[in-house]
Write a structure and sequence with these properties.
Elements lengths: L5 H11 L23 H9 L19 H11 L14 H9 L17 H12 L16 H8 L6 E3 L2 E3 L8 H16 L16 E4 L2 E4 L14 E3 L5 E3 L4 E9 L8 H6 L4 E9 L6 E3 L3 H10 L3 E8 L4 H14 L9 E5 L15 H17 L4 E6 H6 L11 E4 L13 E8 L8 E9 L1
Parallel strand pairs: 7-8, 8-10, 10-11, 11-12, 12-13, 13-14
Antiparallel strand pairs: 1-2, 3-4, 5-6, 7-15, 8-9, 14-15
Length: 450
């Protein structure tokens, strides 16, 4: 899916403009927008950029409300998504389908595309779309403590309205054309502020970007994009997440280590599990010593004997590419004489700084080199490699340009995945229950091309 912020210009002109193009002289003749109005600078900035016009040649109608369809198109394209073709008779149906598939819509608030949207609903959509989180601790509003409102306050997108000594958010009030103008301008500026100075004119960057937790991240064109349809995830009768589409079927999996203790692999197989990724070993966070998981061979034999396909992961604490390659060779040595059909996975995770881990402060480039060295060693031995991580490390620490050769195993504990890039396996839960295993276990789903 191509993402072009240039489309934002076309978008705003289509949604907010119902009259003739802005004048070349940039003289704003809206009699209902005064220089003393709080939204004047936002409307003027968008007008000067040739984006916003009015409901007539002399009126902007700042108090007119905005529909869900209009809001989705504005927000999604401000976040960098491309224009979406309609999937039904409604012009905004493509944006609705995109928002639904990526879990951007507010939960438990059913809306149609022609419904007016309120300020809180807009805030929730923006937070979900941009992947923002709190950067402050203040609770400024007297009328809401909703996290979305607080997050957008932290990032300067919603500033609230004073009412005496109180600051109000007015969560149930419908958002107006004036408010959406300010919101879209600030959203765009947040999206571009990490690499470009803010200015009233909206100049498009030539590189495509996504935004995660307020960080602007260049898209890696060489990586395939996530095309899974989030509306197709279902929970089966055994409680496992499943997926079926015209392009993919799925297989059900778990990953285990010594922490699951003794496992009845026959019961695991009978519950519907198709594959298991076993921890083969780990490197000590303090000593740097490589250790074999004490339950590895028991789990390997038990899974294979019950017809469960097996892959392995190594919990890395490598701090040099040489250590990454050493960890891979350790895995290959321990797997000698065994037949596995799933990948050998590089799993690097940080420790809390209070532990004094030797990996504390590891340079991101070195971390990526460790992953590449591990995977290359695995591939050269004739096995399939894979990189495991979560959204935070995939987006903000690994150099994904260097990982385009290797499949991804995504850890994201949610009902629907939101990772921008393609992933082969999704670890969607860490507290699953599976017959044959005492206590919690990680749950996974593999996507199989048809």
């Amino acid at each position: 899916m191509k993402r072009k912020l240039l489309s934002l210009i076309l978008l705003c002109a289509m949604v907010l403009s119902l009259a003739t193009p802005a004048s070349a002289a940039k003289t704003m003749r809206f009699t209902d927008v005064k220089s003393s109005d709080w939204y004047y600078s936002s409307v003027k900035s968008l007008y000067d950029a040739g984006i916003v016009n009015g409901t007539s040649s002399t009126t902007f109608s700042p108090l007119g409300t905005v529909t869900l369809g209009e809001a989705l198109k504005l927000i999604l394209m401000a976040a960098g998504y491309a224009e979406q073709k309609p999937t039904t008779d409604h012009w905004a149906s493509g944006y609705y389908r995109l928002a639904l598939s990526h879990n951007f819509l507010p939960e438990n608030r059913p809306l149609t595309l022609n419904d007016s949207v309120n300020r809180l609903q807009i805030a929730q959509i923006i937070v979900r779309t941009l992947g923002l989180s709190r950067s402050g601790s203040v609770t400024p509003f007297a009328d809401t403590t909703d996290s979305a409102a607080l997050i957008l306050y932290d990032h300067g997108i919603f500033k609230g309205a004073p009412d005496g000594r109180k600051l109000m958010f007015y969560p149930k009030s419908n958002i107006t054309r004036a408010e959406i103008s300010a919101v879209i301008l600030r959203t765009y500026q947040l999206n571009t502020s990490s690499t470009k100075p803010q200015n009233p004119g909206l100049t498009s960057p030539t590189t495509e970007y996504i935004t995660y937790k307020g960080n602007k991240i260049a898209v890696v064109d060489e990586l395939p994009k996530n095309t899974y349809d989030n509306t197709l995830f279902k929970v089966n009768e055994n409680g496992f997440l499943t997926y079926d589409s015209a392009e993919y079927s799925c297989r059900i999996g778990i990953d285990v280590s010594k922490y699951q203790g003794d496992i009845d692999w026959g019961a695991v197989k009978s519950s519907g599990v198709d594959f298991a990724i076993l921890r083969l070993g780990y490197r000590g966070y303090g000593t740097g010593k490589i250790v074999l998981d004490p339950c590895f061979y028991t789990n390997l034999s038990g899974a294979l004997a019950n017809g469960i396909e097996v892959g392995v992961y190594f919990f890395s604490q490598a701090i040099t590419p040489e250590e990454g390659a050493e960890e891979a060779r350790f895995c290959l040595e321990k797997l000698s004489g065994y037949h596995i059909t799933y990948p050998i996975v590089f799993d690097w995770e940080p420790y809390d700084s209070s532990y004094g881990a030797r990996t504390e402060g590891l340079n991101d480039n070195v971390l990526t080199q460790c992953a590449v060295a591990f995977c290359e060693e695995v591939e050269q031995a004739g096995y399939q490699s894979m990189v495991y991580s979560n959204l935070y490390y995939f987006y903000l620490h690994f150099d994904l340009n260097a990982l385009t050769k290797y499949p991804f195993w995504l850890a994201q504990y949610s009902s629907r995945p939101s990772f921008y890039y393609h992933f082969d396996i999704w670890q969607y839960g860490e507290a699953g229950t599976v017959p044959g295993i005492d206590g919690n276990v990680d749950l996974n789903i593999e996507f199989i091309p048809k």
